[in-house]
Amino acid sequence: MSEEKLVNLTIDGIQVSVPESYTVLEAARKANIEIPTLCYLKEINEIGACRMCLVEIEGMRGLPTSCITKVAEGMVVHTHTDKVMKTRRTVLELLLSNHDKDCLTCRRNGSCELQKLCEKFNIHDIRFKGERSRTDTDDLSPSIVRDNGKCILCRRCTATCKNVQNICAIETINRGYESCIGTACDKSLNDVDCILCGQCIESCPTGALHEKDDSEKVWEAIHDPEKYVIVQTAPAVRVAIGEEFGMPIGTNAKGKMVTALKRLGFDKVFDTNTGADFTIVEEATEFVDRLTNGGVLPMITSCCPSWIRFAELNYPDDLGHLSSCKSPHQMFGAILKSYYANKAGIDPNKIVTVSVMPCVAKKYEATREEMENENGLRDVDYVISTRELARMIKQNDIDFANLEDSEFEDPMGEATGAAAIFGATGGVMEAALRTAADLVEGRDIQEINYEAVRGEKGIKETTVTVNGKEIRICVVSGIKNVRKVMDEVHEGKSNYDFIEVMTCPGGCIMGGGQPIKNSKTRATVDVRKLRADAIYDIDEKSTIRKSHQNPQVNKIYEEFFGQYGSSLAHKYLHTHYSPKQKYRF
Amino acid sequence: MTIEEIENIRKRKRAELDLRVNSNYPGVERHILICHGTGCTSSKSPKILEEFNRIIKERNIENVRVIMTGCFGLCSKGPIVIIRPDDTFYSMVTPADCEEIIDKHIMKGEVVDRLLCKDVDGTIVHRLDELNFYKKQKRIALHNCGVINPEDIEEYIAFDGYKALAKVLTEMSQDDVINVITDSGLRGRGGAGFPTGKKWSFMKTETDPVKYVVCNADEGDPGAFMDRSILEGDPNNILEAMTICGYAVGACRGFIYVRAEYPIAVKRLEIAIRQAREYGFLGEHILGTDFSFDIEIRLGAGAFVCGEETALLESIEGKRGQPRLKPPFPAHSGLWGKPTVINNVETWANVPRIILNGAEWYNSIGTETSKGTKVFALGGNVNNVGLVEVPMGTTLREIIFDIGGGIPNGRKFKAAQTGGPSGGCIPEQNLDTPIDYESLKEIGSMMGSGGLIVMDDTKCMVNLARFYQDFIVSESCGKCTPCRIGTKRLLEILTKICDGNGTEEDLKNLEELSNMVVTASLCGLGQTAPNPILSTLKFFREEYEEHVRDKSCRAGECKKLTKIMIDEEKCKGCDLCRKACPVEAIEGAPGEKHHIDQSKCIKCRTCVNTCPFKAIS
Amino acid sequence: MEENKEKIDSDLQEVFGKYTRDKDNLIKVLEEAQSKFGYLPQRAMEDIAEYLQMSLAEVYGVVSFYSRFTTTPKGKYNISICLGTACFVKGSQAILDRAKERLKIEEGGMTPDGKFSIDTVRCVGACGLAPVFMINGEVYGKATVKKFDEVIDEYMNKE
Ligand SMILES: Cc1cc2nc3c(=O)[nH]c(=O)nc-3n(C[C@H](O)[C@H](O)[C@H](O)COP(=O)(O)O)c2cc1C
Ligand code: SF4
Ligand code: SF4
Ligand code: SF4
Ligand code: SF4
Ligand code: SF4
Ligand code: SF4
Ligand code: SF4
Ligand code: SF4
Ligand code: FES
Ligand code: FES
Ligand code: FES
User: Fold this and answer.
1) ipTM score of the complex?
2) pLDDT at res. A1
3) To test ligand 12's pocket by mutation, which of C81, C82, C90 has the most ligand atoms within 8 angstroms of CB?
């Protein structure tokens, strides 16, 4: 890569030298000068719409927006003049004049970018009052709530949905003051082609988008003496939850999290990773079977519910490629209400299963009609996101950062390194390969780090040789990338054998239920990498790193399911998909 | 077709049409020209054309042709019929008048006096050029409007149409063309007045093989109809100009973005494009040269902001018309990211004439900084409503009083508004400013595209500012905060003031917020949206203060602040007002004093305008 | 109103025949569809989204942006009152107020019997005749409240 040309400019009297592709905002950040922003989301939404980041630049008319104005040699910028500050303040006042302002009851109280700015600008009185544009709420989906009353029309969500996910389920509708974020024909997100991934929530600076909060239901179950409440937590949660308590990004807070869950009053605290080990052995078995018996290839992973919803809507003819495996927490839920209930002697009707997930789509997944056993019991009763769990912990006044560590509980507490890496893109593939290769070759292969499937790239491909046979694999995350790969599959041109799909760019560690990072953090810190490193670190430190070597898992097969891929395993651990009509709502 | 063949058509056609422009034409032939602009079409001019044709056919009359034309300019007197070569000007013609015109004028050579038009000073006018309305005008952009049949390309060719294109393709290099346009001093007529030659020259440095040329015919200014009239009256002129530009900047495709609300203009453009392709002025190897160029029409769907060039590009691409950020400017990254020239209809309309007559000819007209002429759509409280083209530097007073014939009903002039929703109100004291881009800006208004609305003393300036703000609020694209929310709050403050609930604080906020919207908005719409407020605050501040302090509206327009009352002193009991009132709010018997039942009155002001004795106010 | 989905589908096939599946054809296709149905039924928007391979939300975003597009049917007689500057200055607001009063509906609304609807336009280009209103495209110039009443009375008596 050639070194980029540097340009010199002066910001508030400070000389800065930055690459010529920088914006004034980036240059200012480099000089440690903060400029407030609202609509800016690096590389995703650079539209200069909110007008918060206005600055004065000598020789330029009006007040240019620093988030999109490129630097130039000799530029002289003033970021906090009287005129700039008054204008920014009026922008805020205008936004507030069309805003709910009920911070006390807002999901983003304390983490809201708008609220932070108001605090900073010392706003005590809003000069402008008037009619509100739109204040209705859409809470019909099991995953996401959209509250127009809190929307500031920064369009970070629509840009994310369009530029990152390529879905365009939400769009700015109407015009002028009537403009708002909406869906096709103003329907509920639940009824349109939204895949409920929650990436838009992660982008939203305010409380206008948030998860459907199920924590009250969980509290109720916990406090119901009749219920036996079992909680399981996904791998991605432990490497992110610490952020909600001031710990650095990339901290593995597993021990404290487990302690906190026990203190909250759950009857059992299990690890979804155990479920992931089940998923791996089932999925690897299915793959080996397809590979050797001429099944539909490429086979595509199925542990991401947004991906499933996307496929059902957009590739209804290609659902045969999807693995029939349920996702780890659903498998685990099914096992808890069958094998485990029996084993522990608890009436399955009294068991309440709760999943803590980095994901809001899992809330939807848990409500799918397929996810029910023969007695009408749901595999998983409630799904809460990392954020909801953090709020529950805060509610109970638990000093998270200073908790002692503890371990998941037996008998379902044991999991492998393979399961842990499920949380990052490529992880499912790597875990499956570790098992599939062993199964095919019938030995314990020692080279198990598949580096080619790790890392941030949206589409990663490689070939592995198993038993002399080349297996072509692809790992893809972010729906924009998924489309490219799937179009080939659809046209029968794909030459892969096995594809891993994760909806969220970077995988579940960047899921729609994870702690929300503000625009500045996203621009300046590689959140994905820090969280992923923590995940791979767990794997490295694990004694068992292959799912089929998990003694707990194998014990349950011995006692209950029989073989991997047995018909009983299919009954509890597998599911099916049905095409949905995309353009008919 | 070759250039020679075109020349032959020109000669033949020119001789045939000589009587249109030569009042000493010796022959016996007569042309009956009937305005088919939108104004006259709305008052049934196509019926008149039909009727003439029917009579002529029925009676087998020879040596008469009936021709549809574009707008003559004096729309308020429409439907207009002109007989050539003698140039007799008949106004407000109805189909029932056709027989008489044929009988008297065509058959016997006698003028039908009752259809002649009365000038504002009462004199009867026989010929078009006798009208004061036309005396100070100079028609360059409009030179063919009202002269030729816009649906017949040969008529366009007859009056030197496509001659400029032939000249450019055969005698001029790309740089020559750009230089002529640059030297002519032509500036964009779409509002900002950017030098057109300079804009074209930006395209030269672009190496992309695909470039586009766009005609901005969105004409969003409500109450302006210049661009529409040019397209309706002389569509080939625009096609020729765009093709010339295509040659000069190396583009291969052009787009005309025109409002779908202009069905007549769209239809004539479609016809013109079809004919131009037939005659080889568009398409592959134009006039036998290596140059190829074609033009497509794209319809706007009702959004003022799409007149803004980057929003227009978005709209052509099939998207929501939300302005893009500038830079990059369209010349560098326009349609589908390709270098694109965008000019306004009227800008285009000047181009062929400049090529034919030369840069010096053009820049000898106008003022120091603004060359050539400007077309205005003159409307509102002025006697002659219509289309006016004057040299830059003409004063507003000349336009409104000499050309426009002043204010009707003996009312007093109060303000003129130029530049539409982005412009400002100009008070009496500034009427003698010679208009050009700079001088209008200096007095707090702007040229805009050429809407010129005159207001008399029955107009409330606060209410007018409110009207424009209401327009802006419904037309803002909603992308940026200051314009989306700011203009709404401005409207709310103005409404509050008009309703008599305003405070001193509101006046202060109004001014501060206006200035903020100007500095902080993303595109030209928001940056100019508060202009009507700022200019009325500047020149008519006392009216605002009266609304706030005295809760009164001197013009009587703000309904909540006025009562319609009959002055018993003046009432003569003629009963006209009672008959005119749509809600029977007026009581009184003929011959007696009348009075108004305030509980019924809807303040429609019909009676005010009806009372011959000015007893009602 | 019940949408006749099959009819919408087949009517649109004809429109699609004229256009490629490029997204930039959206506005033209919508324009043609609206002129066919008088408004844009949801089914039509769905078909168009499918044909142009774009999300329905994007189509709806465009439809709801441009004021010419409407997703609700207009009355049998649609009254458009010009609120352009030339007409406003000559008193068209009074005509709009009167129309709302006479028909007891708001701007953009339709009478319960589906006979009349009111909307406003910003200059139809007939400023010389200001103030102007239109009924189903027919222009009535130099309007007064009285004249409006007369015209409306006429339409009231029509089928
Ligand atoms: C809100 C807004 C509306 C505009 N409307 C029009 C319009 O209706 N017609 C037009 O030609 N230019 C309009 N313009 C100006 C165009 O953006 C652009 O400057 C012009 O088309 C360039 O052509 P010109 O250089 O020939 O004037 C508008 C600008 C703004 C900011
Ligand atoms: S979105 Fe932010 S500012 Fe608005 S109510 Fe919620 S916390 Fe407060
Ligand atoms: S910050 Fe103010 S408004 Fe909020 S809870 Fe405290 S006192 Fe109440
Ligand atoms: S959840 Fe995903 S698909 Fe749905 S609107 Fe948000 S970003 Fe788009
Ligand atoms: S929902 Fe959130 S992200 Fe989307 S526009 Fe509104 S405030 Fe911005
Ligand atoms: S990638 Fe993970 S977090 Fe994202 S939607 Fe899929 S399962 Fe949920
Ligand atoms: S100034 Fe108004 S029209 Fe222009 S981008 Fe902002 S909101 Fe849209
Ligand atoms: S203002 Fe209108 S309603 Fe009132 S009395 Fe006069 S004519 Fe009647
Ligand atoms: S029109 Fe004038 S003079 Fe005649 S009755 Fe009415 S108020 Fe009296
Ligand atoms: S305009 Fe720069 S952050 Fe919104
Ligand atoms: S439209 Fe006929 S004179 Fe203008
Ligand atoms: S303003 Fe009404 S027709 Fe032009």
Assistant:
1) 0.95
2) 47
3) C82
